[in-house]
Amino acid sequence: MEASEGRYRVETGCAARALVRRDSLVATAPPAPRWLLIENRAGWPRQALSSLQSATGMERALGDEVGRACRELGIRPVLIRRYGRYARADLPPAEPGVQGPDEQSGQLGRRWGLVDCRVGQRVVRWGQLAADEQLLDVLAGREVGTVSSEPVYLVCTHGRHDACCAVWGRPVAAALAAAYPERTWECSHIGGDRFAANVVTLPNGLFYGQVSPDRVVELVEQDAAGVVVPDLLRGSGVFIPPVQAAQHFARAAGHAPSVDNLLPRTVEELPGNRWRILLASTTGPITIELSAHFDTVNARLTCAGSSPTQIRRFELHHLTN
Fold this sequence. Notes:
It holds the Pfam family Suc_Fer-like. InterPro entries: Aim32/Apd1-like (IPR009737), Thioredoxin-like_sf (IPR036249). This is Sucrase ferredoxin. It comes from Kribbella hippodromi. The structure is a single chain. This protein is α+β, with helices and mostly antiparallel strands. It has two domains: 10-238, Glutaredoxin, CATH 3.40.30.10; 239-321, no CATH class. 21% of the residues lie in helices and 28% in strands. The protein has six helices and 14 strands. Strand 1 (34-39), helix 2 and strand 2 (75-81) form a beta-alpha-beta unit. The longest helix is centred in the middle third of the chain and has 17 residues, at 163-179. The model is unreliable at 87-105 (pLDDT under 50).
């Protein structure tokens, strides 16, 4: 979006500009080994946890408390909703939205989900909220919910955070919901606005970017089969970016793209922003040495961001089988 213009335009939004620049998706997944999913029956607020309703009227305090507990536990909280609700609530400022028909209908009985994406511990649990304060019991382990064998697909459509998320995300959510209505959820901000449409597959914990409506069903079917889609993959939220980059370089060298291949065995940080990483592959161990660099670009990485800014790039130095 141009600073001189007060309106959002698709062709000048951060997602369109990133496509033109050919921004790399590699190793851009944020940390997210565990997730707290909170069903939301109102339009997205700017800050997701500000939607929590306290019986004492202390909404901001409850949101802050839930956010603090999530940070301490390494859990990423997001709001979720089914596709097709509040279709106009999150449009960019150029097209003012109206509240959905259920905006004032209340949030009681909505679902919560707790997802662990860590290798060997992957699980999805669902429960019902009697009151939003119950989320603190969920985070403390006093509410365990019911285990589900169904994967969860999140599509970011948080237009009040960045218009590109809604504009690019909603068509993807529509295509995915048509194929897998019970697995598909729109979600609030998950990061990487310029890579919209952003999709996360749970419990595998994989972030995908620049996903189009005609590729999203293929993507989740591959995920359900335990295979990653490398050209759309941002990385795994379970691993730090250098490990994500090492996995990318190994796949590019021909190693199998299965979800559970190329798991890190050792991660050694070296001087000069370099790492030596040992990955376990189906064909034997792989040692990778790589470095991180920050390139200054005259671009905004979000529609509301500033320019110039820096983009991290990983460089492969050695790959030894």
